[in-house]
C-alpha cells in the first residue's frame, strides 16, 4: 500500500548510510577531477596525476559502498522503494557523472569541445537510462526475482572505464609516447560499454553470493590470489578484473551450467530460479508479440 504522505516514507538507516557513502565518494571524485582540470589537466600530468588517481580510487570506493548497501538491505530485510531510488540517484553521480568528467579530462580534451562533450554525454545518458529501466523493472512485482542484470550494471561500467584510465595514467608516467597513441582506444571502449549497459545481455548480479558456502581448495586459492594481486598491483589489476566481468557476460551463454554454478557460486535451486524467471519473461514477451 502506497504511503499517504512524504512523512510516511520509511528510511532504513544502515543501507542508506552505505548509499550516502557511495554518493560522498562520487562527489569528492567530481571535485578532484574538476580541480585537476583547473590545474591544467593532462597537459600538466605530473602535477595533476595524483588528483585523477585519487578520483579513480574514490570511484572504486563507491563501487564497494554500492555493493554493501544492497547486501545489507537484503540481509536485514530493509529493502525499500526509497532505498532503490536513493541508490540510483547516487549512482548517477558516482558512476555516471564522475567517469564522464574523467574521460573529458584524460582523453576527450584533444577533440573539439562539442564532440568531446557529446561523446562523454553518450556514456552518461546510457548509464542514466539504464538505471531508469532497472527501477521500472524492479517496480513491476510480477517480473520475478531473477538474479541477473539486463545489460552491464553501471557500477561495473564505471569501474571498467576508471580502471582502464588508471592503467593508462600509470603507463603514461614512464611512456608518454605510448599513452598518446593508445588513449583514444578508451573512447571506443566507452562507446562499447555504453551499448552494453543498455543492451539485454544477461550479467550475473552476485546479489545472493554465498560467502559461507564451501568451495574446492583451488577455487579458494584463486580467489585469494586475485584479491592479493588486485591490492598489490592496483594500478592495472582492477582493469583485468572488470574486463573479465564484461567478457564473461558475452561468453556466458556458451558456458556449461556446471561451470556457471561454480563461477557464480550458485546452488541448483538458485540456477533453477534464474532459468524459470527467464523462461517466464520470454513467454510473456512471446504472448505480447
Q: In brief, what are we looking at here?
A:
The chain is built from 11 helices and 2 strands, in the order ααααβαααβαααα. By secondary structure, it is mainly alpha-helical. The chain has one domain.
Task: List the main descriptive attributes of the protein structure presented here.
289 residues; mainly alpha; two-stranded antiparallel ribbon; 11 helices; 2 strands; 2% strand
Structure description:
The chain has 289 residues and is an all-alpha fold. The chain is 73% helix and 2% strand. The protein is built from 11 helices and 2 strands. A two-stranded antiparallel sheet has the order 1-2. The radius of gyration is 20 Å and the shape is globular. The chain starts with 12 loop residues before the first helix and ends with a helix.
Radius of gyration: 20 Å
Q: Biggest sheet, in brief? A: 2 strands, antiparallel
Portion in helices: over 70%
How many structural domains in the coordinates? Answer: 1
What string gives the helices and strands in order?
A: HHHHEHHHEHHHH
Task: Set out the fold topology.
Elements: H1 13-38, H2 45-76, H3 81-106, H4 113-139, E1 148-150, H5 154-174, H6 176-182, H7 185-197, E2 202-204, H8 217-232, H9 237-251, H10 257-264, H11 268-288
Helix pairs in contact: 1-2, 1-3, 2-3, 2-5, 3-4, 3-5, 4-7, 5-6, 5-7, 5-9
Amino acid at each position: 500500500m502506497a504511503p499517504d504522505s512524504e512523512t510516511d516514507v520509511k528510511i532504513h538507516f544502515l543501507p542508506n548510510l552505505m548509499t550516502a557513502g557511495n554518493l560522498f565518494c562520487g562527489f569528492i571524485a567530481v571535485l578532484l577531477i574538476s580541480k585537476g582540470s583547473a590545474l591544467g589537466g593532462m597537459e600538466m600530468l605530473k602535477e595533476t596525476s595524483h588528483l585523477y588517481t585519487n578520483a579513480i580510487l574514490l570511484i572504486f570506493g563507491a563501487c564497494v559502498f554500492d555493493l554493501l548497501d544492497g547486501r545489507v538491505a537484503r540481509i536485514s530485510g530493509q529493502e525499500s522503494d526509497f532505498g532503490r531510488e536513493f541508490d540510483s540517484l547516487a549512482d548517477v553521480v558516482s558512476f555516471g557523472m564522475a567517469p564522464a568528467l574523467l574521460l573529458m579530462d584524460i582523453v576527450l580534451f584533444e577533440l573539439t569541445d562539442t564532440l568531446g562533450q557529446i561523446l562523454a554525454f553518450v556514456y552518461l545518458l546510457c548509464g542514466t537510462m539504464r538505471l531508469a529501466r532497472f527501477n521500472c523493472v524492479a517496480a513491476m512485482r510480477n517480473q520475478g526475482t531473477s538474479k541477473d542484470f539486463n545489460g552491464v550494471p553501471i557500477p561495473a561500467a564505471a569501474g571498467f572505464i576508471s580502471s582502464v584510465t588508471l592503467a593508462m595514467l600509470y603507463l603514461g608516467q614512464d611512456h608518454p609516447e605510448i599513452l598518446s597513441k593508445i588513449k583514444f582506444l578508451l573512447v571506443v571502449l566507452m562507446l562499447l560499454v555504453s551499448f552494453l549497459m543498455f543492451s539485454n545481455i544477461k550479467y550475473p548480479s552476485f546479489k545472493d553470493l554465498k560467502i559461507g558456502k564451501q568451495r574446492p581448495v583451488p577455487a579458494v586459492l584463486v580467489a585469494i590470489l586475485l584479491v592479493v594481486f588486485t591490492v598489490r598491483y592496483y594500478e592495472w589489476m582492477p582493469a583485468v578484473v572488470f574486463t573479465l566481468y564484461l567478457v564473461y557476460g558475452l561468453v556466458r551463454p556458451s558456458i556449461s551450467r556446471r561451470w556457471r554454478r561454480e563461477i557464480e557460486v550458485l546452488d541448483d535451486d538458485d540456477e533453477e530460479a534464474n532459468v524459470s524467471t527467464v523462461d517466464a519473461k520470454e513467454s510473456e514477451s512471446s504472448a505480447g508479440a
